[in-house]
């Protein structure tokens, strides 16, 4: 059906790149000059299977590129490990068999190992951190939490999700914040639109003093459901923590709108007003 006229059948799909209208439309829409911004990018609805097929192929190319890049990294990691092991991991049996020149060289190398090992770690540490942070940015850029057509979780996924969340909460309780963060991130890969998981991640980031990132989590949760009171409270406490009292007040007022008589919100508002004046 047409996205604008539920009573009439869909005839066209707009493929224009800078389109802000709903992309499935009918003949009446066309007559009313909808999607005239890029007429030559309007396709017949019958083309849909080919359009999806084309996109799947593009997606496969990107995934292949990622797989190949990582395979190469892992291949060279194996070479590096083998090289280090050959040079420094010397068994006593081998040592006894080699000639005196080699024995001296082996001992020489072992003495220099501490220095060499420090250098290798330093050289690798920074690029690895950079790559890892780019990968994390990539995951964030996909914005999976905004995708409304994600299917339901399978029973197994639900179980895994719940395990990650529980572990994350326990780690959070015992103040093992980095580990707690990793667990909740795993849960969010399974279900990126789970509000409690987003809030959990935000709360961990708050404790880690990564306040901006924490705020993003709360805002993301509210984009999914702007009536979610827990998210509003979390965003409110972010604003208090960062001394933005006006914005904090706004959040608590919205909570009262959603849920009139919410005691916790009323107490927060009272406190904020007392402190302001
Ligand atoms: Zn229409
Ligand atoms: Zn359009």
Automatic annotation (TrEMBL):
Q: Which Gene3D superfamilies match?
A: Tetratricopeptide repeat domain
Arranged from A to Z, the UniProt key words for this protein are:
Repeat, TPR repeat
Q: Where are the TPR repeats?
A: 195-228, 229-262
Alphabetized SUPFAM superfamilies for the sequence = TPR-like
What species was this sequence derived from?
Paramecium tetraurelia
Protein name from the UniProt record: Uncharacterized protein
Classification of source organism: Eukaryota, Sar, Alveolata, Ciliophora, Intramacronucleata
């Amino acid at each position: 059906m047409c996205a604008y006229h539920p009573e009439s059948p869909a005839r066209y799909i707009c493929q224009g790149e800078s389109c802000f209208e709903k992309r499935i439309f009918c003949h009446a829409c066309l007559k009313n000059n909808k999607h005239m911004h890029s007429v030559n990018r309007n396709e017949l609805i019958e083309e849909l299977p080919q359009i999806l097929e084309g996109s799947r192929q593009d997606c496969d190319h990107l995934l292949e590129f990622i797989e190949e890049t990582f395979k190469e990294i892992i291949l060279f990691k194996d070479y590096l490990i083998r090289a280090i092991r050959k040079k420094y991991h010397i068994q006593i049996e081998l040592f006894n068999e080699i000639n005196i020149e080699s024995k001296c060289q082996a001992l020489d190398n072992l003495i220099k190992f501490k220095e060499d090992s420090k250098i290798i770690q330093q050289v690798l540490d920074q690029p690895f951190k950079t790559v890892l942070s780019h990968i994390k940015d990539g995951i964030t850029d996909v914005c999976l939490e905004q995708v409304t057509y994600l299917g339901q979780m399978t029973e197994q996924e639900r179980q895994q999700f719940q395990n990650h969340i529980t572990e994350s909460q326990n780690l959070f309780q015992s103040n093992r914040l980095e580990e707690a963060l990793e667990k909740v991130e795993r849960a969010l890969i399974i279900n990126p639109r789970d509000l409690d998981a987003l809030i959990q991640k935000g709360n961990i980031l708050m404790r880690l003093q990564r306040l901006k990132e924490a705020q993003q989590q709360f805002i993301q949760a509210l984009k999914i459901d702007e009536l979610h009171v827990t998210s509003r409270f979390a965003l409110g406490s972010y604003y208090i923590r960062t001394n933005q009292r006006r914005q904090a007040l706004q959040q608590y007022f919205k909570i009262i709108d959603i849920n009139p008589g919410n005691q916790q919100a009323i107490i927060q508002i009272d406190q904020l007003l007392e402190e302001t004046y």
